[in-house]
Specification:
Elements lengths: L1 H25 L2 H27 L28 H18 L4 H16 L11
């Protein structure tokens, strides 16, 4: 965490310098504002990571002698088979296509999106994959 905090702090210094040079050179308000907002965002993230790193024990990434396997562990649980992401992808594709072709296509995409989202959220509460 310490490394990430330092990275974001140095990135914020670079973005601040870029924002100042861009603002003076171009005299364009929108890009300058966006760069100053990016500076604020990177400062917040860097401060949070640095602040959190002080309260935590040292991780394997903070040790220069650490191996890759030192931080290994359970990544998470992933569904072995699920049709819900496919339903969401088709519904999302039809939804974005509806923006380009016509809003009437959203009537067909919205049920696919809702069914896919509902099924994905409650996938392990029913049927053969039900967790006890």
């Amino acid at each position: 965490m310490k490394i990430q905090g330092r990275l974001f702090i140095w990135l914020s210094v670079f973005i601040l310098a870029t924002a100042v040079v861009y603002g003076v050179w171009s005299k364009e308000a929108v890009g300058t504002t966006a760069l100053f907002l990016a500076f604020g965002l990177t400062v917040m993230i860097g401060f949070y990571l640095a602040f959190t790193a002080r309260r935590m024990d040292a991780l394997a990434q903070d040790n220069k002698e650490a191996d890759v396997a030192d931080e290994a562990g359970e990544v998470g649980f992933f569904a072995p088979h699920s049709w819900q992401p496919f339903s969401l992808a088709v519904g999302g594709a039809l939804g974005f296509l509806g923006v380009a072709i016509g809003w009437w296509l959203l009537y067909f995409s919205l049920p696919l999106i809702l069914v896919g989202l509902w099924g994905w959220v409650f996938e392990f509460y029913q049927g053969e994959n039900r967790n006890q």
